[in-house]
Specification:
heterodimer, A: 108 residues, alpha+beta, 3-stranded antiparallel sheet, 5 helices, 56% helix, B: 326 residues, mainly alpha, 3 domains, 10 helices, 2 strands, 77% helix, Permease prefix domain 1-containing protein (chain B), PadR family transcriptional regulator (chain A)
Chain lengths: 108, 326
């Protein structure tokens, strides 16, 4: 398990990545994050919904209601232009962060 | 899933039931149920599935903090004041500050005018008027000033009854707090200027009395009247600046309006409602019955000092009591 302190700054990035391929809803996003991280990271429910609120407030995602395949009415999220720009910004930030931190990491 | 629903209900119980929160709760329940169903399909037992879903829920405090939502207090009587009603309250405070300040000025000017009339009568300015006629005239003049003042006080209090919740404990919405703070900062320079001018007027006002005293015995009453008029101006400024500042402090629960101070002020307020009318009774009785307009104005400064002393002793005793309790 990864400490949530370390990963906190990138929760939003992960969610935006999940929306790059198209609209999605809460559980699908959280399931895909778990799958992509090979079960190493599980985003808590409250973390997920905090991020939705924050991203929507900043205009990085927009939400709308839609009936899912199972017939359940759900809130779907879609990435916006601004969200895409923010995502790219975070990607280059991570490149640098990684380079810097790596300089201080010794292979065990 | 009833267990998950009950779990969420208990977590959300401490938070306000706004549309936003209820929506969020429903969304989260959906997600948790999806997760639960899938875990069961993967062959987990009911108990295991519920255990996993709950362990992956996270912290509701963190979520509400992110949304800027404040908890409902345990005792339920702590009201949350919105930005809109905070701004409305500011407007009402400004209006009532203006009206009540004019009211004070009018009362003091009325008393000053009454004293002038008494002095004029004593100095024979009304020719062959009888004392009764002069007194009647003085009373009418006093009423002309005091009655509108009472009207202003009542009008100034209007609309404040909607905000009685501010008398007790309350919570100001986060963004309301910031904006009220900004308004208070903008008002600060004007407030200091008004207070300084008022203090100067108040301190200089006895000079009028001194000058009049030097000009002769018969002039003292005029000096006192001028002094009262100057004091009226000082009180006008103090009341105006003080009420607005007080309104801000009340909203932000600062200074005189912290929860501990509020109780203290309630008691001191009760003392004031007895003491000041008593001072006026003494003033009018000594004036109209005994005709001592020349000295009886002294009852006001004496009451002010007495009032300050009583208030001071009370809050000191309260502080010691609280310390010994702690």
């Amino acid at each position: 398990m990864i400490s949530s302190d370390v990963i906190r700054g990138y929760n939003d990035t992960m969610i935006l990545y999940m929306l790059l391929g198209g609209e999605s809803y809460g559980y699908e996003i959280s399931k895909n994050i778990r799958r992509l991280s090979e079960e190493k990271y599980v985003m808590k429910e409250t973390t997920l919904y905090s991020a939705f609120a924050r991203l929507e407030k900043n205009g990085y995602i927009s939400s709308f209601h839609k009936d899912g395949e199972s017939g359940k009415r759900r809130t779907y999220y879609r990435i916006t232009e601004e969200g895409l720009a923010y995502y790219q910004e975070k990607c280059s930030e991570w490149q640098i962060t990684q380079e810097v931190v790596n300089k201080f990491i010794k292979e065990p | 899933m009833d267990v998950l629903r009950a779990y969420l209900n208990s977590l959300f119980a401490a938070w306000p039931r706004t549309a936003q929160v209820l929506n969020l709760k429903r969304e989260m329940l959906d997600t948790m149920e999806d997760k639960y169903e899938e875990l069961k399909q993967d062959g987990k037992s009911e108990h295991e599935a519920i255990g996993i879903v709950i362990s992956e829920f996270g912290s509701i405090d963190e979520l509400m903090h992110e949304l800027g939502i404040l908890p409902v207090s345990d005792d339920g009587d702590k009201v949350v004041v919105s930005k809109q009603s905070a701004h409305e309250y500011e407007k009402i405070v400004r209006r009532s500050a203006r009206l009540q300040a004019i009211g004070w000025l009018s009362i003091l000017l009325g008393v000053a005018a009454t004293m002038c009339i008494a002095a004029l009568k004593d100095n024979g300015a009304f020719g062959n008027w009888s004392s009764d006629q002069a007194y009647l005239f003085a009373v009418i003049v006093l009423f002309v000033f005091v009655v509108p003042a009472i009207g202003l006080f009542i009008a100034g209090g209007n609309g404040k009854d909607k905000y009685t919740m501010l008398e007790n404990e309350f919570e100001l919405e986060a963004d309301a707090k910031d904006s009220v703070k900004r308004h208070m900062e903008t008002f600060r320079p004007l407030h200091s200027r008004l207070i300084v001018i008022a203090a100067c007027l108040g301190t200089l006002s006895p000079v009028a009395l001194l000058i009049a005293g030097m000009r002769g015995e018969t002039e003292i009453a005029y000096g006192a009247a001028i002094m009262l008029a100057l004091l009226g101006l000082a009180i006008f400024l103090f009341a105006y600046a003080g009420s607005i500042q007080g309104g801000y402090q009340r909203l932000l629960q600062l200074g005189e309006y912290t929860p501990e101070k509020k109780e203290e002020n309630r008691v001191i307020g009760r003392i004031a409602t007895v003491l000041w009318p008593l001072a006026f009774v003494v003033f009018f009785v000594s004036g109209f019955v005994y005709g001592r307009w020349d000295v009886n104005w002294a009852v006001f400064p004496v009451t002010a000092v007495l009032f300050a002393a009583i208030g001071g002793v009370y809050s000191m005793r309260r502080k010691t009591k609280m310390k010994t309790k702690a």
